Amino acid sequence: MKRLSRLRRHRAAGPLLLVFGLLTIGTTFQVASAVTNTTTLNADRSAQIEEGKQLFLKGCSSCHGLNAEGGVVAPSLIGVGAASVDFQVGTGRMPMADMSQQAMRKNVVYTPEEVHALAVYVSSLAPGPEIPGDELLNYERDGSIAEGGELFRTNCAMCHNFAGQGGALTQGKWAPSVMGVEAKHIYEALITGPQSMPVFSDKTLTPEEKLSIIKWIKHAETEPQLGGVALGRVGPVTEGLLVWTLGIGMLIGVAVWLAMKAR
User: What are the chain's domains?
Assistant: First the structure.
């Protein structure tokens, strides 16, 4: 007891007790803040899930089922992930009136907040690919145009055309143009494989290679037409048809002119 009394009377005891008190208060505040933030995040997520569920029941359940289990005309959404919903709804492909037709890009029906709520609700049903964040989509820093062009020609050009303008597939389907598409939606298409498109997992194309493809697409969107008229950049068929039509037309014109001169 005497030793404890001597320690209390030591001139360093006051500052030490002050530091200890401050550390205790700071630690308590940090723990309380973390608990509060976690509770707030959970509450926000629960609210988004509920909002997304109500939107789903109104606009999607007639085809995909009340519990997203799928139906006769539409597939199950369990396990497709938030990225698939963000791509399909965020590009206006869904909702659609006729599920027997190929979904095409059109005006978006929902607001960005409603699209996010739908994605959160579907992702809550089962794990799946998540929506890529801005920190993942820094293609200007992490991508390579040269590598992206090579990867695009190897993996994408057979369907989307060597210039990304889209092309015809079998059974009346087509691969859409990739020009003018947001980087986020291109990345989501690569990891979810919408409709006839295959899924490019990180084992097939690494995240850096995906960013290189996006960087090449964005570069191609602004590339000048140094060779003259682009003619849609859909390949030699259009160019050959134009040359053939003009050539035949000129030959017919020359033949008519010669026939008239011979009279």
Answer: 46-131 (1.10.760.10), 133-229 (1.10.760.10)
